[in-house]
Amino acid sequence: MNCLSIIGATALIFACTGVTAGPGTPLLATEPNYTLTGTIKGLETGWVYLQHIQTGTIDSVKTSAGKFTFSGTVGDPEYCRLGITGRSGREFRVGFFLEKGTLKLEANKESMDKAVVSGTPVQDEYRAFQNKEDLTTDWVRKKAVAKEYVKAHPSSYVSILELDIYFSYNPDVVELEELYNGLDEKIKTSHSGKIVKETLAAAKKTAVGQAAPEFEQKDVNGRSVALSSFKGQYVLIDFWASWCGPCRAENPAVVKAYQAYRSRGFTILGISLDEHKDKWLEAIKKDGLVWTQVSDLQGWKNSVALTYGVAGIPMNFLLDKDGKIIAKGLRGEDLKNKLAELVH
Predict the structure, then answer these.
(1) 131, part of any domain
(2) What's the CA gap between 127 and 11, in Å, rounded?
(3) Closest CA to 157 of 104, 195, 103
(4) On the chain, which terminus has fewer CB atoms closer than 10 Å, C or N?
(5) How many other CB atoms are found less than 10 A from the CB of residue 23?
(6) Does residue 211 fall inside a structural domain?
(7) pTM for the whole structure
């Protein structure tokens, strides 16, 4: 399981996005060219939120007898999310393509992730793909289905979304580049296409065998810490966040590896994608993360995460004593096994 910062959220049970946006920001609309009407059973009265991933804005409307309507302007089809107020605040559990035309949503308050959105060409295509994808719960098979789809639909906005979802986390550079290059130019130059291009460029710079890009961020006490200050040791650059469930579940394995090899030239430099310092510090203490921790408290916009092309967490990069990347994406026992090979 990973927390993913992707173009949009999918219905995948182990994906949570890193999109942040301000509430109630209106669309810059003149003549509306789309309408989204919906009915949410069980939500007679309440607020519905429409999150525009590309601009980071959120629109909101109040339901009446469970019904609502959004309207505005849109250019190229864009992936958006719709949510309602839940136990943890706004819960965006419906992902769909917003485009010119009329869309209809049917949902139940208690099972928003099963909402049906239909009525426009790209969204109907996306819905058909999701139905095909849902035939399996196996991630490897889902990825294979997505790969086949991307190759067969080079001019599809659905393809670029699936490319980001399935191939941007700890990517195989050769595979991602081949799939990206096979897309039509209009898809490559779309908003989503540009994001995947940036991910690919970062992946090339942080591939195994490359020198880890230098960076500097402040630790929990406000002191600047540079990566270069750790030369001469095996260093695990560990990206995580207090709000990331999979990261917190992974932390005990990281702690064990640190305890086993810290006296033999191994250390960890944690980089948090948190925004709130108090929650970051609380998680450090609770999980027993006694190594150096840094953050700029910018969430998914953390400058180091952007440099390293981190599209999902937990994610890590293992460096040798000269600062060269020798492994990445080590999970569970894989970290200890790799260190056993290197540290004697």
Answers:
(1) no
(2) 11
(3) 195
(4) C
(5) 12
(6) no
(7) 0.84
What is the arithmetic mean of pLDDT over 121-127? Answer: 97
Q: Tell me, yes or no, whether 165 and 259 share the same domain.
A: no
**DSSP H helical segments within the chain, as ranges?**
121-133, 139-152, 157-167, 173-181, 185-188, 191-205, 245-261, 277-287, 303-307, 333-342
Q: Tell me, what amino acid is at 194?
A: K
Which has the closest alpha carbon to 191: 75, 23, 59, 332?
75
Residue 127: inside a domain: no
For residue 26, pLDDT beyond 70: no
- Do 54 and 140 have their domain in common? no
The confidence score (pLDDT) of residue 17 equals: 34
In the numeric block, which tokens belong to residue 238? 């560990």
Residues 31 and 86 in one domain: yes
**Domain span at residue 149?**
136-205
The answer to whether the beta carbons of residues 96 and 80 sit under 8 Å apart is yes
Strand order across the beta sheet in which 89-98 lies: 57-62, 47-52, 78-86, 89-98
In a domain, 126, yes or no: no
CATH of residue 105's domain is: 2.60.40
The mean predicted confidence, pLDDT, of the chain is 90
Residues 293/301, Cβ–Cβ less than 8 Å: no
